[in-house]
Task: inverse folding
């Protein structure tokens, strides 16, 4: 069995424009923590929607995420809870992303329940509401402009 090659993540300048949103999906059969990553729309002269999508693909590749039209792959241990704060290891040797999450989300993740990470390739405004983020995620899933995978806290 071969292991897919891990791609280099985008640099901290790009990653600083990534926003993270958390949620908990509950059904009668299971409970799943969710982490959605998206980038704000172009703000600077060198930015474009295409370059943002390319950077988000690189971010998703570094996490070893799969396409949303396939079963989400297990991507290894990418989330850590330290002193009550969740941190995402996105593949950079130096940096981690602090995940802004409610204590209930962090507690669920700390129990070892699965965490679904979804990276949206299309930009979304930084001030998007929870409903707008959810609608954008559903649309990204339907358009196959989302990458996803499953991780666990260790």
Result:
């Amino acid at each position: 069995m071969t292991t897919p090659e891990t791609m280099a993540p985008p640099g901290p300048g790009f990653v600083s424009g990534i926003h993270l949103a958390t949620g908990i999906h509950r059904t009668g059969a299971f409970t799943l923590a969710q982490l959605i990553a998206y980038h704000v729309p172009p703000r600077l002269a060198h930015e474009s929607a295409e370059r943002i999508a390319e950077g988000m693909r690189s971010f998703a590749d570094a996490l070893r995420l799969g396409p949303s039209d396939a079963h989400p792959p297990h991507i290894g241990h990418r989330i850590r809870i330290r002193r009550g704060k969740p941190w995402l290891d996105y593949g950079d040797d130096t940096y981690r992303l602090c995940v802004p999450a409610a204590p209930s989300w962090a507690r669920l993740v700390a129990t070892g329940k699965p965490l679904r990470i979804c990276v949206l390739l299309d930009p979304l405004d930084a001030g998007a509401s929870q409903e707008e983020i959810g609608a954008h995620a559903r649309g990204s899933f339907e358009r196959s402009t989302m990458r996803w995978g499953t991780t666990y806290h260790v």
User: Anything to note?
Assistant: The chain has a mean pLDDT of 91. The CA atoms of residues 65 and 148 lie 5 Å apart.
